[in-house]
Write a structure and sequence with these properties.
alpha/beta; seven-stranded mixed beta sheet; six-stranded mixed beta sheet
Length: about 400
């Protein structure tokens, strides 16, 4: 195992190199088969490892770590030993950009898994693309990241190095709207978002579909994600006559928001996207969260035959944190990078070429394998070809799958 010491890192910083918001240790996945003459390939991870969203971020990191350990144990890429370099972005775009610059500067990094937040991805994409360093996100869902700012009218791929294993909000928002209107019988919705890239974008695609179906948006509001006092918004929800609340944002705000809406007298469900699909939402919402809904990418991992081995191996490794909503997608994102590296090595007589980053990025476009979450491959925009989603409801203190399927546009 190799680890960067804080002393060495401090010396680098003092010498005028890159200023970092967070640094991580580099760990080599255990492998008795790895020889001393093996080539080191580092897979970077960028995610919130501390702060409100750390439950999701640590699940991402651990799942990538498991993929690397599996590849090393099986000697999956002959002559290559994989290591992980996990950096904390604290869910902040500025930190993500600094982390991207740090990862680019490390020539052993041939791929990056992450980030969690779409707003953070926006700050990282150009840095990675300029360096031909492939990035595979297990969690970003904003359509503009792959299809350009005008994705609704003219799809244009801006960054060839960016891919994702999660489906987009162009599908997730409408999928939720169809479930609420057609299955749950909800006709009047109050829409709230946190003004961030992910939340506002998700709320917008939901709202468009809900109105298209014939539903009424009886109120809209934006919240400050830095506060936990939503009493004023809760009062507006109560007086609106809404029979459901749709929230575009993440669980640290969604939990207290749900609780305060019920306390204001509006005994109606709060519904959100994959950003609220976490056990921590249930903790924050308390008993008032019963009956709330969330959509999330893919099918429930625990119910997928393809995920049985992942779930068992994750448990066997003894990680302290759960793999959460994006564990399977994080493992598949890391494995996609591993597959791309394998393709490049195999095509170059068993060694890495001098332009390995560019070749790994090019190889990613044609990566295709049966992963934890099902078939993993990418379309011409770098988006996942797996478009499945699931609706979950809070029941007996846990998330329970209600309906799985794809958006019928």
């Amino acid at each position: 195992m190799r680890q960067r010491s804080l002393i060495a890192m401090t010396a680098v910083l003092a010498a005028g190199a890159l200023t970092l918001t967070a640094c991580g240790s580099r760990d080599e996945g255990s492998s008795s088969d790895s020889g001393s003459d093996s080539t080191t390939v580092v897979i970077g991870v960028d995610a919130p490892l501390t702060g409100d969203l750390s439950a999701l971020g640590l699940g991402i990191k651990n799942s990538v770590d498991l993929a690397i350990k599996t590849a090393n144990k099986d000697n999956y890429v002959d002559g290559v030993t994989f290591e992980i370099e996990a950096l904390d972005d604290q869910a902040q775009p500025s930190s993500g950009q600094q982390n991207a610059t740090k990862l680019v500067a490390d020539k052993e990094v041939l791929g990056v898994v992450g980030p969690l937040n779409s707003s953070v991805a926006e700050s990282m994409q150009k840095v990675f693309d300029d360096a031909d360093l492939v990035e595979v996100s297990p969690a970003n869902t904003n359509p503009a990241l792959t299809q350009g700012a005008d994705w609704q009218t003219s799809k244009v791929r801006t960054y060839k190095s960016y891919f994702r294993t999660a489906t987009t909000d162009a599908i997730q928002g409408p999928f939720a709207a169809q479930y609420l209107f057609n299955d749950a019988g909800k006709k009047k919705v109050f829409v709230i978002d946190d003004k961030k890239t992910y939340g506002a974008g998700l709320a917008a695609t939901f709202s468009a579909e809900f109105e298209k179906l014939g539903g009424d948006i009886v109120g809209t509001e934006h919240i400050d994600p830095e506060t936990k006092d939503f009493s004023a918004v809760a009062t507006k929800v109560k007086s609106s006559g809404a029979d459901v609340v749709y929230y575009g944002g993440e669980y640290p705000q969604a939990g207290p928001l749900s609780k305060q809406i019920k306390a204001a007298g509006a005994k109606i469900p709060l519904v959100g996207g994959d950003g609220i699909y976490s056990a921590d939402f249930i903790k924050l919402a308390g008993t008032d969260g019963a009956g709330d809904f969330a959509t999330s990418v893919g099918a429930p991992v625990e119910e997928l035959p393809s995920a049985t081995e992942f779930v068992a191996n994750y448990k066997a490794e003894g990680y302290k944190e759960a793999y959460e909503a994006y564990g399977g997608y994080s493992y598949d994102s890391a494995w996609a990078i591993i597959e791309a590296v394998k393709k490049v090595v195999d095509d170059n007589d068993g060694t890495l070429p001098d332009d390995a980053r560019a070749q790994v990025t090019a190889a990613m476009q044609n990566v295709s394998f049966d992963g934890v979450t099902g078939k993993v491959s990418f379309d011409e925009f770098g988006d996942a070809t797996n478009k499945q989603l699931t609706v979950y409801s809070v029941k007996d203190g846990a998330w329970s799958a209600v309906k799985s399927g794809t958006y019928e546009g």
